[in-house]
């Protein structure tokens, strides 16, 4: 598999990221190239196996080739060998129909979210309208209370005899 080091659909797996984070990239490579070449060094091999198994369990890919080797790392002060694992996955027969169904579901979800957002915005506008009406009614009530108080005071002044 070392001859495939420049594979156009190569995905290098790291142990620093969660395996599920590689699934969208692998799906895109499968869609564009019809296959994906997963590669990992050392402890990242278990993450790579997880990525491959996720794709296989979702019926998106099938295994074409698996390879293991020791890769000589010469870029360090003291050259050493690290275990390396590579898996070549190809699109499954159901891949295109599964991706189409996922796109339809995502589009339907986007429509639902947009409708919910529009409904929420309309509810906010109605609530804002009610607040304006209440504020206007409150100001009118305050003006009415002042008028009533003035009128009550005028009655009191008239009702008291002047001595």
TrEMBL record:
<dbReference type="GO" id="GO:0005634">
    <property type="term" value="C:nucleus"/>
</dbReference>
<dbReference type="InterPro" id="IPR002775">
    <property type="entry name" value="DNA/RNA-bd_Alba-like"/>
</dbReference>
<protein>
    <recommendedName>
        <fullName>DNA/RNA-binding protein Alba-like domain-containing protein</fullName>
    </recommendedName>
</protein>
<feature type="compositionally biased region" description="Basic and acidic residues">
    <location>
        <begin position="118"/>
        <end position="136"/>
    </location>
</feature>
<dbReference type="GO" id="GO:0003723">
    <property type="term" value="F:RNA binding"/>
</dbReference>
<dbReference type="InterPro" id="IPR036882">
    <property type="entry name" value="Alba-like_dom_sf"/>
</dbReference>
<feature type="domain" description="DNA/RNA-binding protein Alba-like">
    <location>
        <begin position="12"/>
        <end position="62"/>
    </location>
</feature>
<feature type="region of interest" description="Disordered">
    <location>
        <begin position="118"/>
        <end position="163"/>
    </location>
</feature>
<feature type="compositionally biased region" description="Acidic residues">
    <location>
        <begin position="145"/>
        <end position="163"/>
    </location>
</feature>
<dbReference type="InterPro" id="IPR014560">
    <property type="entry name" value="UCP030333_Alba"/>
</dbReference>
<dbReference type="Pfam" id="PF01918">
    <property type="entry name" value="Alba"/>
</dbReference>
């Amino acid at each position: 598999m070392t001859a495939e080091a420049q594979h156009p659909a190569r995905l290098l797996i790291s142990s620093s990221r969660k395996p599920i984070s590689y699934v969208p990239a692998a799906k895109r490579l499968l869609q564009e190239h019809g296959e994906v070449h997963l590669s990992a060094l050392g402890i990242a091999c278990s993450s790579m196996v997880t990525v491959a198994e996720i794709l296989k369990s979702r019926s998106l890919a099938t295994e074409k080739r698996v390879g293991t080797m020791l890769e000589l790392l010469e870029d360090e002060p003291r050259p050493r060998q690290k275990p390396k694992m590579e898996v070549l996955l190809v699109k499954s027969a159901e891949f295109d129909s599964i991706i189409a169904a996922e796109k339809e579901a995502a589009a339907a979800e986007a429509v639902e979210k947009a409708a919910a957002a529009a409904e929420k915005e309309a509810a906010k506008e109605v609530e804002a309208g009610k607040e304006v009406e209440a504020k206007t009614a409150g100001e009118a009530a305050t003006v009415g209370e002042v008028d009533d108080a003035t009128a009550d005071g005028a009655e009191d002044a008239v009702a008291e005899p002047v001595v």
